[in-house]
Amino acid sequence: MTFACAGTQLVGTVDHAGGLTGVLLVSGGNEVRSGAWNGQALLAARLAARGVPVMRFDRRGVGDSEGENRGFRDEAEDIRAALAAFRSAVPGMGRVFGFGNCDAASALMLGGGCGLDGLVLSNPWTFDENGVEDDEAPPPPAALRAHYAQRLRDPAALMRLLRGRISLKGLLGSLRAMAAPTLPTTLAGEMTAGLARFAGPVRILVAERDRTGQAFLGLWPRDDRRVVRCAGASHSYAEESAQEWLFDQIFSAVS
Asked: Domain residues for 160?
């Protein structure tokens, strides 16, 4: 389907179903609406098979949509236009939840929910850069702490350390980096303020193997009961067990 946003034509896909609660999938980064490894298309089809109507779309300047790619910080207008188009395409629908991973989650938070009734936010992007992770940049202290906490629970890793198979120089460098304070970012503050304006239900998902998710946890209040973690999951939940977990989390949130 096509729909208008600020004088440009956007393209979306709707998986119809008979349920009254729908899900709007918001793509992260510059991904097209099918998602990484076709993950969003597969997720949409699976939710629809369980009675949940789903819409996914390309924001301006991405995929099949026209216009200039303005980035996730200015995506709220695109999300609101997609939500209106979704409601028009499925007129009997009541509530609509938004799901976004990485900077798509950040966009939903910055927009105060963008008119949606509920939010499922995954691995929110909190770096002040433009939503593209630098693989050569050193991990943030929160990510390092999460990594070594996991390693300390691994008997094989402990044996490698005791046998001298782990570089002490590298380990000491990581320990110094871990000791550095986790400083709030401007983006994280804006996201916190935006989410505070949202009155609907919120669930925050974090893949424990994901550096973006680990960095988010380092900045977010530890006592927030809305946060749910997936052990062993990577950023896009590519693992089979992580895919099952993600589906269960979204389905239970909207049920």
From this structure: 141-179
Number of folded domains in the chain? 2
DSSP E strand boundaries for the chain: 2-5, 8-15, 22-26, 54-58, 96-101, 118-122, 202-207, 227-230
- pTM for the structure as a whole: 0.83
pLDDT tens-digit map of 203-223: 999 999 999 999 999 889 999
Considering the domain architecture, whether residues 204 and 234 belong to the same structural domain is answered as yes
Rg (CA), the chain: 19
CA dist 59 and 136 (Å) reads 28
- 93/22 Cα distance (integer angstroms): 7
In the DSSP assignment, the letter for residue 140 is P
* Residue 36 DSSP one-character state: G
Residues 23 and 129 in one domain: yes
| Residues 243, 148 within the same domain | no
Looking at the fold, whether 88 and 159 belong to one and the same domain comes out as no
Of 77-86, 90-99, 127-136, where does mean pLDDT reach its minimum? 127-136
